[in-house]
Amino acid sequence: MPTDSPPVISDAVARAIEAHRERPGALLPILHQIQDSLGYVPPSSVPGIAEALNLSRAEVHGVISFYHDFRETPAGRHVVKICRAESCQAVGAEQLVEHACRTLGVEFHGTTVDGAITLEPVYCLGNCALSPALQVGDAVYGRMTPKGFDRLAADLRKGR
Amino acid sequence: MIRVFVPRDSGALSVGAETVARAIAAEAAVRNQAITMVRNGSRGLYWLEPLVEVETPAGRVAYGPLTVDAVPALFEAGFLTGNKHALGLGPTEEIPYLKKQERLTFARVGITDPVSVADYEAHAGYRGLRQALTMPGAAIIDTVITSGLRGRGGAAFPTGIKWKTVLGTTEQQRYVVCNADEGDSGTFSDRMIMEGDPFVLIEGMTIAGIAVGATQGYIYLRSEYPHARQVLEEALAAAYRGGYLGGSVLGSGKRFDLEVRVGAGAYICGEETAMLESLEGKRGMVRFKPPLPAIAGLFGKPTIINNVISLASVPIILDRGGEFYRDYGMGRSRGTLPIQLAGNLKRGGLVERAFGVTLRELLYDYGGGSRSGRPLRAVQVGGPLGAYLPESQFDTPIDYEAFAGLFAMLGHGGIVAFDDTVDMARQARFAMEFCAIESCGKCTPCRLGSTRGVEVIDRIVAGRDRNGNVQLVRDLCDTMLNGSLCALGGLTPYPVLSALNHFPEDFGLPAGALAAAGR
Lengths: 160, 519
Known about the structure:
The complex is a heterodimer. Chain A is of the alpha+beta class. Chain A folds into two domains: 11-66; 78-157, Glutaredoxin (3-Layer(aba) Sandwich). Chain A contains seven helices and four strands; from the N terminus they run ααααβααβββα. In chain A, strand 3 (134-136) and strand 4 form a beta hairpin. In chain A, helix 1 runs antiparallel to helix 2. Chain B is an alpha/beta fold. Chain B contains 21 helices and 16 strands. Chains A and B meet through helix 2, helix 4, helix 5 and strand 4 of A and helix 1, strand 12, strand 16 and helix 17 of B.
């Protein structure tokens, strides 16, 4: 609509658009960079991205909502992704998930009340010879046990 | 200087390789012992990770699984000269699990420094590309056809034929895309190649590009693999510096550019047309076929799409010849398959063998039986869309046709073992649930069928009109199998029906009653 005021774009969003807009298939690289710098893709960034790539807002929103990775709200300080695929199921992933949910007091996609940990499911981390596996940021953990999970959660809460 | 190898493979890192590496470096410094540490890939003996090797005049000697606490004692025992220690495993190459393998595609993984192009060249790297550069494109493709190489991503389509289709198009702009969206549970061979020997993938893609006249390649990498991305980026930078990529590949005057694109956590993007959509910056929605991607693929241009392992097998085929590779294997399954042992096994890891090895050998001779010590009851082969096989089918050889004959599939070669505590009705339900979570939504059988499937299985397990609902789930599977647009909806019936047919007692049905009732 021509009467719209120009979209407000934060620095991080502008930098991401600038870095990738000329690449073929630029949308995913842009969204990744925004999420890497802000921790999520704010809905307010959609109009600016759409304009830069000559897409409709619906198309940009459609892509953000399609992919499991992209978040539209901030997560906790750490995102813990527990694998719940078959290889991990075969060695106790479901019990690990139950333990994690119970001790953290959250369901999947939830964040602990202290804002330290967001719990997400993931379907395979490629660490299937060392199942059960989970991932925090770029770090993968193998042969995870409920005890090991408690230690890890405590470390994350201490900010390590 | 003594060379010590500590893997940077993410599996090894997941059990502490990084802290072990730091402890070794610190201990060496304290003792004024000069060492060179190489961060290699994993040998694929994951139950022994972190597995550290020392280079001695008599060859490499292995120690593992290492902990930080064990490091001072290892130095004390003289591990830098290969001395004995409780964690000593002897000469690495003599470890039976490794010695009994036929490593062609994985020839260098765990041996070389993954990001050193000099090390790669010193271990027969880039010989395939040099050979390819002396050949016309059609001759390169003929070599790949002769090798009998079939798509290792799961579909097993002849790789060379795909390339030939692209070569036969009239478009000027063509692409090579590597499908590195390895999302199947129980599979990790793509990851191991990318983290342990990325140049073999880069070389394979370059050969593909030279063969069909494509100047741009993309590696579509799943976001769950940040370590693979890091290694690939380092290797790509080294390849550009060395003139192996760019405007004139090895001085040939031929251009080939390559970059990594990262997915965003959608399993469906492992389906080739959904992957193309994603690369173009769209939702990962499956495309109708035809047109085939080889005719109209990325940005509408002819595109070679191959799995990591397919492409990584090309350099040795060009180096040693199509016949050399073809002479491995059985039937129409030629060459070797990097098999991944996962789930409830004592010795999970990577086993590259010629086709023909049986499931039983893999599960017991290599895998050592269950980790839990209980009997193995079922194995799922080929990822979340693969069938569950009962013990009575463990003598099946690793062969595309043998698996197809059992209404099963080899897929990407991942084997997930379950012991006798597994509830197969639960596994069948999960297959439907996973399909519902990951469906792109384009076709009805997959989008709706998967959700209805979960509900119907719940009713069977709850004992509500069991026979009627079993019939319903069979009808539903028939619709999904024949009416879905791609393999996600089309193959989800495999795990569901195999669970139902081989393990009816888990669904509250009389044992053995259903195998006769059809698929």
